[in-house]
Amino acid sequence: MELRWLGRVDYLPTYEAMQAFTAQRTAGSPDELWICEHPPVFTQGLAGRADHLLSPGGIPVVPTNRGGQVTFHGPGQVVAYPLIDLQRTGYFVKEYVYRVEEAVIRTLDHFGVTGHRVAGAPGIYVRLDDPFGHARLPQAPGRREPGSPPPEPDFTGVGKIAALGIKVSRHCTYHGVALNVAMDLEPFLRINPCGYAGLPTVDLSTIGVSVSWDDAARVLSQKLMAMLGS
To answer: Left if phi > 0, otherwise alpha if psi is -120 to 50, otherwise beta: which for 211?
Structure first.
């Protein structure tokens, strides 16, 4: 897997570049991991509803073909785009999502924070009252009967620290995951984050972890490459 550091780049041309890369790649093309930061932008997934954009103001809104609802990208957030050939890796989309989330959990653990999954909701969350504690969340995913619908997400006591949205085309992934490090969180109040009204959004800074964007990006890229390359 080739690692590409893009720096701070506008969202739309980056999105278009991911589409072009995926459309042009062949069975022999190496996988890539793009690490970047975006100026303020709201992105709307395929399932996105206009009423989840409460008050975007002067922040642009970009429709995308990823899964999920609306989210916000901005300075102080590490955005990672794994461009992976799943057919070559031999694992399916569900396992891919698990591996990406696990890379975020391991990144947070590196900085002393416990990341959690919430049943029925993608992304990674932290306990608002104890982001460093290791107690299991009551709403953590559990075993489900085959064919049963996912549970209604329960966000009691948690805040979202990383959002996940992916697209798979011809067995190849693009879009990815965004980890909040030290950013202006106010724009999240202008939307229903990921389609959930009132869902608290946090970053490492607001839960008491002081880390630079560069350090967080370095650790996240290492964890993603380890999880997705195995």
So the answer is: beta
Query: Low-confidence residues of the chain, pLDDT below 50?
Result: none
18 phi, psi to nearest 5 deg: -65, -45
129-132 contacts, C-beta under 8 A, 24 or more apart: 129/157, 131/202, 131/207, 131/208
Of 121, 128, 190, 132, the residue nearest 159 (C-alpha): 128
Q: How far apart are CA 161 and CA 181, in angstroms?
A: 8
Strands 121-127 and 116-118: antiparallel
Tens-digit pLDDT profile for residues 100-129 = 999 999 999 999 999 999 998 889 999 999
Q: How many of the other CB atoms lie within 10 Å of CB of 85? A: 18
Of the residues 166, 183, 185, 194, which is catalytic? Answer: 194
Q: Are 37 and 8 in contact (CB under 8 A)?
A: yes
Beta carbons within 8 Å of 170's beta carbon, 6+ residues apart: 22
Instruction: Find the helix or strand (DSSP H, E) in which 99 lies.
Output: helix 93-110
- For the chain, domains (ranges, CATH) are 2-115+160-228 (3.30.930.10)
Question: Is residue 194 flagged as an active site residue?
Answer: yes
The predicted model scores a pTM of 0.94
Among all chains, which residue has been given the structure tokens 């389609």?
A: 195
Task: With CA atoms as reference, report the closest residue to 61 among 19, 8, 12, 9.
Answer: 12
How far apart are the C-alpha atoms of 156 and 15, rounded to whole Å? Answer: 33
Local structure of 171: helix, strand or coil: coil
Cα 56 from chain centre: 20
Task: Number of helices (H) and strands (E) in the chain: give both, helices first.
Answer: 4, 10
